[in-house]
Amino acid sequence: MQPIQLFDLASRQAEWLTIRQQVVAGNIANANTPKFHAKDVTPFDAVLDKSDIAMARTNPAHLSGNDFSNSGDIDVKDAALDQEIGVQESGNTVGLAEELSKSGDIKRQYDLNTSLVSSFNRMMLMTVRR
């Protein structure tokens, strides 16, 4: 029997979401700080590409999986410049509307992550009871 990697994947995404929420909160906290440059983390796809979680192809009609190496660092980097906000007079590049939108997206992803893990856990418990 192969190990179930959904819990590993969910844990990795929760870790990524935690770091992203910290970065977004830092951006919001420094929205009025002169010469502060907004930051963001690498997309989860890039983090997943570096992890040791390999997706298996169980049916020829399914998408093919990738081979992932074992080094999953989450990088924090300067965010791309928001064309709507640009660089403000103070040199700050934080756009509050964009940061609040990211925060809402993070919450939705957390909710989805916990719902999937909860459903999968219930499914696993039902199979064990039989």
What string, H for helix and E for strand, traces the elements in order? HEHEH
Rg from C-alpha positions? 19 Å
Q: What are the low-pLDDT stretches, counting only 5+ consecutive residues below 50?
A: 63-72
> What structural class should be given to the helix and strand makeup?
mainly alpha
Describe the largest sheet: 2 strands, antiparallel
Q: Tell me the helix content.
A: 40-55%
Number of domains: 1
Question: What does this entry look like structurally?
Answer:
The chain has one domain. Helix content is 50%, strand content 5%. The chain contains three helices and two strands. The chain has helices at 6-29, 44-50, 96-129; strands at residues 39-41, 76-78. A two-stranded antiparallel sheet has the order 1-2. Helix 1 (6-29) packs antiparallel against helix 3. The longest helix is centred in the last third of the chain and has 34 residues, at 96-129. The relative contact order is 0.19. Mean pLDDT is 77; it is low at 63-72. This is Flagellar basal body rod protein FlgB. Keywords: Cell projection, Cilium, Flagellum.
Task: Considering the chains and any ligands shown, give keywords for the structure.
mainly alpha; 130 residues; flagellum; 2 strands
Summary of the model, kept short:
The protein has about 130 residues and is mainly alpha-helical.
